[in-house]
Backbone:
């Protein structure tokens, strides 16, 4: 058994068999090889993406399929046609007659909702178990290039009890295929979908003969790029205009007006900083949008400093209005700011 934080236990797994372990008949098929379990994830929709909490909700289906010779003689009779059980009847069959393993959704938050389920028994011995589910999942997101970022939404699945000596995942699939249904989520463009077969190793202090247990794991990944229209026109463009507007202080004649414009626009940029902090989690690194805001601080501050130096050098006279320093900075600041913006964009774009 894996050792799991008890506070997360309720939200970590899908219990496919409610009380089967108390019945000695309900055991996995006996074999020299581990049971091969195929699994498919069909996604209807990914929604309610929360950047602050790094969570997202998924509406989808999970289908498990494996082979169990025992179902060919269902309830003491040879099975000649496919039997399908749904919802409460399916649960009753799993609790009393058919062995169904339990699984963990490793990155789920809270509990999972399963409104529908079914189990199919085939004369060949094939068992298919389907569930419809709704759940909130989490994964570590990379916001370095936000709002031009690309994220990977994951669903991570492991057996709850049986390690690789007894069960392994094979042939995982994620559906629908990308070209058939590209808009599984709004405000994002799906770039790729893939599955990964991995293994996790856990300590097993209760059994000195097997101090480590290895569990098969399947990872479903949906890679998507954020649609930047909202952030581009509602956040970055106004911020760009505000910072560019701060350079008018080099064209204004009155020193007090220069300072007033500079400090007012500085406070406006501070408001953008509060907004960016409200839509992102606390991060140990700088994002693209935060870096742009910092660059805005620097340029506005340097502009204020420049007019103060100009005033000290030339005084509050007509000479200060025609000073070579202001005439040079009228063009140097906008050009330097544009170069900084494009350089940062390409720098952060490479880090995606």
Residues:
């Amino acid at each position: 058994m894996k050792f799991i934080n008890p506070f997360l236990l309720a939200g970590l797994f899908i219990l496919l068999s409610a009380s089967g372990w108390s019945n000695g008949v309900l055991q996995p098929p006996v074999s020299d090889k581990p049971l091969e379990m195929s699994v498919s994830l069909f996604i209807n929709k990914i929604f309610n993406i929360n950047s602050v909490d790094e969570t997202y909700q998924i509406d989808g289906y999970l289908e498990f399929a494996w082979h169990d010779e025992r179902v060919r003689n269902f309830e003491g009779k040879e099975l000649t046609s496919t039997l399908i059980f749904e919802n409460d009847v399916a649960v009753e069959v799993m609790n009393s007659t058919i062995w169904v393993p339990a699984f963990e959704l490793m990155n789920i938050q809270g509990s999972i909702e399963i409104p529908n389920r079914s189990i199919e028994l085939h004369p060949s011995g094939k068992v298919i178990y389907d569930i419809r589910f709704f759940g909130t999942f989490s994964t570590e997101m990379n916001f370095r290039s936000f709002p031009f970022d690309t994220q990977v939404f994951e669903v991570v699945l492991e057996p709850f009890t049986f390690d690789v000596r007894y069960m392994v995942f094979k042939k995982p699939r994620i559906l629908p295929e990308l070209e058939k249904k590209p808009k599984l989520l709004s405000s994002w463009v799906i770039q790729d979908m893939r599955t990964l077969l991995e293994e996790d190793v856990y300590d097993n202090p209760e059994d000195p003969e097997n101090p480590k247990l290895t569990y098969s794991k399947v990872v479903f990944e949906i890679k998507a790029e954020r649609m930047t229209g909202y952030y581009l026109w509602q956040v970055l463009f106004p911020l760009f205009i505000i910072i560019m507007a701060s350079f008018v202080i080099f064209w204004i004649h009155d020193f007090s007006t220069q300072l007033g414009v500079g400090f007012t626009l500085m406070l406006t940029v501070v408001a953008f900083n509060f907004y960016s902090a409200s839509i992102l989690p606390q991060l140990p690194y700088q994002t693209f949008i935060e870096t742009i805001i910092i660059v805005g601080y620097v340029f506005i501050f340097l502009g204020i400093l420049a007019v103060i130096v100009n005033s000290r050098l030339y005084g509050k006279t007509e000479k200060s209005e025609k000073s070579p320093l202001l005439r040079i900075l009228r063009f140097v600041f906008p050009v330097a700011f544009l170069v900084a913006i494009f350089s940062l964009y390409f720098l952060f774009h490479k880090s995606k």
Summary: Residues 288-314 form the longest helix (27 residues). The radius of gyration is 30 Å. DSSP finds seven helices and 13 strands in the chain. Residues 218 and 267 are 49 Å apart (CA to CA).
